[in-house]
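Subject: for your reference before the review

Hello V.,

The reviewers asked for a structural picture of the protein, and I figured it would be easier to keep everything in one thread rather than splitting it across files. Below is the amino acid sequence we used in the manuscript, unchanged from the supplementary table.
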Amino acid sequence: MWMDHITFALHEMDALDGYLHAVGLNRRPVEPLFDGTQRSVILLSEGFVELLTVSDRRAARRLTLGQALIRFLAGGEGIFRVVLGVPDLDAFMRTRRILGAQYWPPIDEEITGIAAGPVPIRLTQMDLMLPWVLEYRGERPTRHLEGPRFSAVEVQSADPRTTASQYRIALGCDIDEEEPPGGSPRMGLENAVLRFQRGASPGFSSLVIEGKAASLALRAEGGQVSGTLIDR
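And here is what came back from the structure prediction:
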């Protein structure tokens, strides 16, 4: 299982440009996810970041996802969606079902902006506080790209250990303990780490992108996304 992409909901599409340029990244405007939105993508090694904003509230409200995006942005900017990838979605769902994790029936969709043409996928979720899971219906388009990569995503909750256990059941990944003993739990993926931290606002709170010279932490606090450079 790998970190495939993360969607940031923003009030202004160019809000992160300065932070991204600092680690050699540029966003690429692409087709809207649906009517009433603007969208850009940032290609990484083995994944991508998606930036999404509302351009026409009336048009966006016509779809359930648009309504969800409007509600999310009413509370501020942040990580709107985390999507993990698996090679075989049916096999993944069968295995998780045995342990009591009931995923929704998969949705067939297409992703644009990360390859020469539309990329077909199958996508599912079981709870709004958990990541989505997808399978590519063909070759994984960002598999062999070079450059900055995902490093870590922070998940906040009132009880990090309970949240980590819920993720283990839902995703099937082992939980490691940070040193020293008693530290916050974390879960390793193929290309990133999920960190479970205590926080007043439950949900995904930060993303770390690792570059050659420095890493960039994009954190959502107080309804606004900001960036911090971390020297390597």
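For the response letter, the relevant points are probably these. The helical segments are 17-21, 57-60, 64-74, 89-98, 160-171. The first strand starts at residue 2 and ends at 9.

Happy to draft the paragraph if you're swamped.

O.
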